[in-house]
Amino acid sequence: MLEERAAHAINAMIGMADHDHGYIPFFSADLMHKPAYMVHGDWDYGSSHGRMVDGLILARHMSGEMFGKEVEERYRENLLSFFKEDGMSYRQMNSTHNWEPNANLIDQRAVILSLTSWYMESGDPKVKEAADRHVAALKRIAVKERDVWYYPASEYKETGWPSVNGMQLRLAPDPAAFCGRLVMPLLKYYELTGNEDAYELCQFFTALIVERSGVFNKDGSFNDSLAYRSGHFHTRLGTLDAIARFGMHSGNAAMIAWVKKCYDWALTQCTAFGWTPGDLHEQAYEHETCSLVDLIACGITLAKSGYVEYWGIVERFLRNHLVESQLLDLDWVEQTDDKSHDIPADKSFYKVAERTRGSFAGYSAPNDFVCDVNEGRGHTSDLQICCLGSGTRGLFMGWSNTITEKNGTVSVNFLLNRGSKWLDVSSYLPHEGKVVLDVRSDIARLLVRIPEWAGFTKIGYIREREGTVTEGKGNEASCWVNRHFLTLGPAVAGERITVTFPLSFRKTLENAVGQTFETEWRGDDVVGISPKGTKKPLYSGRKVFDQSPMREGDYRRLDNEFVW
Fold first, then answer.
1. Sorted alphabetically, which InterPro entries does this protein's record hold (predicted)?
2. Coil, strand, or helix at residue 312?
3. What are the backbone dihedrals phi and psi of residue 497, each rounded to the nearest 5 degrees, phi first?
């Protein structure tokens, strides 16, 4: 149940607040240390607060959980306090770290993302005012050429470009990190409010990426040079999702095809269950949950654009590495109730396991929550708050796209448990090849996606309506549309439809930056992986039964849902 996963994420988003430092959330955690500790970082401000505000709004919408509202209010107050008169969101001074106030361009993406979700949720005019000023500032500081706009450095200061930090940190004005990823929230803000500045930024940033930047090579591969952050996956995949959305919005089929080419190359660097490299060099072995969520979001956009094969690819990501990356079992983490060794505004050892339950992996190996390999940078951070916000958004993207409706056609895209105003989906996977659809309102046309491994000759369905039972088979004529969707025609409220199909049992060899893993599949679920992880093994505790275990409960159904 993705809704329950969202409720667990709320625990971490609230728990990682530093009550002794203005409720600013800690950025990362080392769970291997004895005892575990959390630390602050220069991402604490617009980036972390933006991620937390956005994530909490989405998680509460999914789950209905209201725990920690007082902490969330402090996050929102903090977020607005980081704006200066110029409309940009600035990082703050910290007595324990040697950095200067600056408006980091990566932070701005999380800021406008959160303001957009906040305004969608509340309609609060003060939020719209802040967002409008922010968008105007993003436009004002951009360097404008005839056909593209861009930012010339990684950080902006009140005195203008550039920032000393940009040179000290060896950052380059990477177009994907600082411009491309901004397109997604800016486009949504335009769709929500009609803000023309936001749309202009989308147009010129998209042209920059596709036509001029060199971030992506002609074959779709990522430019791995140092100036392009060594082909950093999170920013590249987030940029692809953004451009796919803009292509779909503007009806630009060539743009969507360009994204598909790049996305398909990215898939060759990832495992089928959703592990992604961090980049193509120093961080190659460090998977960020952020990258996986970008992979999920872009795949959904491509699927909605007509490339329906990506529905199945994304479902494997949702069922496997996204949920495996969420930390629910912390028996292996040593924690303490003692604050005597805490460093104010820097580090805390206090109840770290309890406070981080529900968070997502900052860096993980394909088979282990903890990345502690010999290659790359070795062991770094086990948790990062950006991945917590992204992981929560990944849950939301899967949940909100399980069932979609367009022009009277209702599509079941993911075979995940989900309630809705149209119908409820009860999935028996991975235990049985069975999905039950309980129709709640009349539907003009109903489609359900069948996994490609199920074939079509042995697929069957039973329809029960007012005491009448009819049967059908997947090998009948006119059963299929869009290659993978079984068409069930009209459905009426009160009808129950049970779809059955054979499960696939198979093993694959998955490559992850020169490492090979034997992966055992049951349908779309990984039920075993070899070699096994050594710190906090993934895919080792999954239990599968011949008959699906049942549970009591009801689905969460909403008449008014966010559409991201």
1. 6-hairpin_glycosidase_sf (IPR008928)
2. helix
3. -120, 125
What are the beta bridge partners of residue 447?
Answer: 411, 487
CA atoms within 13 A on the CB side of 66: 0
Classified as helix, coil or strand, 449 is strand
For residue 193, count CB atoms less than 10 angstroms from its CB and return exposed for 0-12, middle for 13-18, buried for 19 or more.
Answer: middle
Decide if pLDDT at 138 tops 70.
yes
Instruction: Compute the distance between CA of residue 370 and CA of residue 19 in angstroms, rounded to an integer.
Output: 27
pLDDT the model gives residue 170? 47
488: CB partners within 8 A, 6+ apart: 446, 447, 448, 461, 463, 497
423-438, pLDDT tens digit by residue? Answer: 999 999 999 999 999 9
For 305-436, where are the alpha helices, taking DSSP H only? 309-317, 323-324, 352-356, 385-400
Please state, as a whole number, how many other Cβ atoms lie within 10 Å of the Cβ of residue 422: 21
Domains and CATH numbers, the chain: 7-81+326-357 (no CATH), 95-213 (no CATH), 404-428+434-500 (2.60.40)
Residue type, 293: V
- Kindly tell me the sign of the dihedral angle through the C-alpha atoms of 70, 71, 76, 80: positive
CB contact at 8 A, 442 and 460: no
* Cross-sheet strand order for the sheet of 383-384: 347-348, 37-39, 28-30, 383-384
For residue 74, the SS3 value is helix
SS (H, E, C) 468-512: EEEEEECCCCCCEECCCEEEEEEECCCCEEEEECCCCEEEEEEEE
At residue 412, φ and ψ (nearest 5 deg) are -95, 105
Q: Is the Cβ–Cβ distance between 211 and 171 less than 8 Å?
A: no
Highest average pLDDT, of 282-286, 441-445, 541-545, comes from 441-445
Token pair 């502690």 is at which residue?
372
Q: How many CB atoms lie within 10 A of CB 405?
A: 14
Distance (Å, whole) CA 211 – CA 205: 10
